[in-house]
Write a structure and sequence with these properties.
This protein is α+β, with helices and mostly antiparallel strands. The chain has 32 helices and 20 strands. It has an 8-stranded mixed sheet with strand order 3-2-1-4-5-6-7-8, sandwiched between helices. Strands 13, 14, 15 and 16 form a 4-stranded antiparallel sheet that branches. A two-stranded antiparallel ribbon has the order 9-10.
Length: about 950
Amino acid sequence: MADAFIQRRASLRTNLLRGFIQRLTLRGPDPDPDESTTQEPVTSPTATGFPVCFAVDVSGSTEGWVLGMEQEAIIAISTALGKTTQYSMSRSSILPWNDKAYGRLPLKDVKDLVSGGGTVPAAIFRDSVYRSYLQQAGLWVLITDGQIDQFNVRDFSNSILEAGVHGTACVIIAFGYRGWSPFQCNVSVGISVFAVAPHCLFLYHAIHENKTYVIQAKGCFKELLPDDKRFILFNELTRWDDLHSIRYDDLARVRVPQPAKLLRDSVLLPNGKIFDMRTIYNNKVSNDDTLELLSDPASLDVILLAANTRGTGYLIEAWLEKIWKKHRFAASRSFDREEIIDREDIGGVGLLQLTTLIVHATNGAGEDNFWDVLRSQCVSQDPTLQDLKSSLCYRHQLNWNNFQLNINARYQLLSKIQKDVDGALSTMSHIESGMSAPSPALLTPMSSLPRNMEQNVASLHSIRPGSEHDWSSLSCSVGPSHTDRLGPFSNEPSPMIVGTYDEPSPQVDISTITFLPEFKTRDVSGMSDYDMDHPPAYDTCLLCDRPGSIQTLLFHSSSTVQSTRGLPAPNSRAGHKYPLVLGNYAETDVIAPIVTCDGCAFLFQQVKQLPNGGGSVAACLPLVPLKLIENRSKWIEVLSEVYEHRFSQNITLLVFLSTLCSTLEDLSEYNDDGIKTVQGWFEWVCREIMSLPGLAALVGLTPAAGVLSGKVKPSMPLRDVLTMIFLSTGSNSAMIELPLLAYPIHGFIVIVRLARLVKDIELSQIELLVWKRLCYYLIEQHAEMQTRLGVETADKSLDDFLFDSSVLDSISLPDTTRRARSVCPVVKLLDTHLLQQDILDQFRRIDPFFSAIESSKSSFLYALAVFLHLLNNFVKTESEITNPAFCFSRLQYQADKLTWGTASKDVLESPSLVTEEMGALLIGQCISLSATSKE
C-alpha cells in the first residue's frame, strides 16, 4: 500500500515537471490522455442524483497547510451533500489541477492529492475527460488559493464557454489569509465562473481562523444569507464582520436547479431568460431587448461581468457608448437616436412596387445577365417604366416620413433610460480598472450603486410608436432627398424639427442619417477637410430617379458551389500575405454591377427571391465616409458576412479592393448609359479605401527586412505607399520596387488598376513597372525550371533560344559562326519555358500598358532581347538562381553598365529608348561580358 502511494506521488511529480516545461510557452499543448488522465467512463445523471465535481487547485502554493484544508473542505462538503437525495457522491469526482490537469480521483482518494506547479485554471477544460465529468455534473466546486493575471482570467472564461458548463451551478472557495478588509481579497480565479454561472456561491476560507465567509451569492444560493446580508457593498471600509459566515454543511440546505444548456455566447439572466451576447457584439440587439436590459440592473450586471472576464468588455462598452450618444438630448443639435428605430416599409407597398419595376425592366433576362439588363433598362425612356419609378420614389418619401415620426414617438422613452446607461458605463469603467487585481467589488451588481430602485418599467414601455400616424403635418410632395438633408457643398446642416410629447422640441439633426441603419453620411461635428476632399456619394438613383440620394452597393448571393483550390474556406477567418490576389475568384465575385439609393437598397434586402433569375441581395453598403470608425467597422462586418468569414477582418477591405478591381475590369466590356455611373462610384470606393490609414502595411509590399518597412508608417494610407513606389528615384528606388515586382501576378494587376486612380502617378510610370514585372517574372520562371529540371537543362534551353541560327532577326558574332537573337516579341516566349499562355493572358489584362510592351512596332522588342541576353549572361556566371530579387538587382546593375556611344542606356529603366541598332550593340556587349567572365 505504501509502495503504491509513493509510486503515485512520483508520477504526479513527473507530471508537474512536464507542466513547468509547457508553461515556457504562452499556452502549452493539451495534455496527453495516456499520461495525465485516466480514461474512465462518464456516467450520465440518473434518478439517483447528479454527480459533483471538485476542481481543486494543487499548485505549489498549496503545499502543506493549505492543501490539508482543501482536503478537509472536500470531505466536509461531500459528506454534507451525500446526506441529500439530490447528489450521487459515489459518482462524484475530484479533478486536481495546477498548470495542467491530472487523473480524476474518486472522493475516497482525497488524501492522495500532491502540491506542485503553477496556477492555470483553464487547464481544467483542456482535458477531454475532465470536460466530460464537468458536463455531466449537477454542481461543481472550484477550490483555489491562487491569483492569476488578466490573460488567464480571459483564457479561463473562454474555456468555460467552450466546454458549455456556464449553465451549471458552482461553489467557489478561495483559500487565503485574512487582511484588514475583505476588499483586499483577490478573486481573479473565481471571477470567470461567477460571471456566467446563474447559480453561484463565492466563499473565502480564512486559513488562520479556519472560518468561511460569503463574498457573494446569486441564484439559489442567496437563501443561505439572512436578509440584512443579501448584499454587501465592497469598498475600503468593508470589514470581515460585515460578511456572513457559513459552515460547509450549510450547502446541503440549498436546492440547486438542474444545469441550463446554453450556447457558447449565451447567458442565463436573473429573470430566467437566455440572452445571446452576440447580439450586442454584432450590434443586433432588438429595440425591446435594449429597453429591457437597460431597465434591469441585475441583468446588466451579468452581461457586463461576463463580457469583461472573457475579454469582450470593450464591445459592451462600445454598445453602451453608442446608445448613450444616440440618446442624449440636452442642448445638443447632434442628437442622434435613429438607429434605435426600425426602418419600415409601410404595408409592404414599397417592396411590391420595386418588384413590379424589376419584373418590367428585366423581362426576358436570365440569371447570367439579370443585373446588366436591369441597369441598362432603368436608364431607358420607357413611359411605363418612368411611371413605376415615380411611384417607387414617392413610396420612399412616405417610408421616410414614417421613420421620422417613429423617432418622435421614442423620444420620451429613450430619455428615461439615460441614467441606466450612465450607470452601466460607470460600472464598466470600474470593472476595467480593477481587472488587473480583481477585488470582491467587481462582483458587485449594478443594483449596488446609489440609484433609484423604484423605476417604473411599465411606464417606460407604455410609450410606443403607433402603427398609424397623422400625416397632415408632413409634406409628401417631394422625395426624402439627401440634398434636402445636407447638400454636397453645404457648410451647415439643415436640421429637421422633431417634437416630443411633454418637453420642448429640440432641433434634431438628421442630415447624417441613411435609410440603412448604423451608417453616417458625414461626421456629426460638421464638414471637415476630409469631407471637402471626399465629396459625399450623392447622385440620382438609377432605379427610382430620386435625386441627391446616397449611392449604395448591392451584393448578390453567391451561386458558386465548388470552392477554388487554395482559397480560405468559409468561417476560417484566415490572413493572407498577398490579400490583393483574393478578389479574382468566383467565390469573391459578390458585387452586383449596379448602384442604387439607400431607399431602394433597403427594399432589395427584403426580397427573398428576385424575379427573372435575379437571385437575391445578400447585403447592402451605402457609400459613406470610411474614415468614421463606425462606418468602417460596419463595412468590415457586412463584407465579412458576404465573404462567409473566409478572411481575417484585418484584410477584409483589401480583399474587397481586389474584388472591386476585378468587377471594374468586367464592366469595361459594357457600354450602356448606366455603366459610367456604376464605374464612377466603384472607383470612388477604391479611392476611399486607399485613403484609409493602417491598411498599407497589410498589403504585402512592406516585408520586414525591406526598404519600405522603415518608410511606411502605420498611419500612411495605401495611396501614398503606391505613390512612393511608382515615383521612387535615387539609389534606393530598385529596392523599393522589388516587393511590387515580386507580387503575385493576379494581385499585381489589381495594384496597377489602383495606381491608375492615384492622380500623382503618371501612366508612363505605370507602364515602366509593368515592363519590369514582366522581366521579373521571366527570372522567376527560369529559376523554377532550374529547380524542377536542373540548372544545366534550364540554362541550355535559354541559351538555345537566344542563339538560334534559324532566327531572321539576329546578329552575327565575331570569331564564331553563331548568331544571336536581337529581336524578341513577347509572344515568342511561349515557345520557351519562360512564359505560358495563361500567364500571358493575365498580363494582357493590364491594358493599355501591356499592349504597348507587346506591340510588334515598339522598342520593347529590342529591350526584351537585351534583357534576355543579360539573364543568360548571369546564369552562365552565377549558375543557379536562388533568389529572383537578387538576380533582378544584379541585372539592373549590369544593364546600367551597358553604353551607347558616350551615354549609358539602361534597358530596364528606359526600354522605350532602345532602337534596333542600339539593341544589337548592347547585345554584343552582353556577350562580350559573358566571354570575359568565363576567362
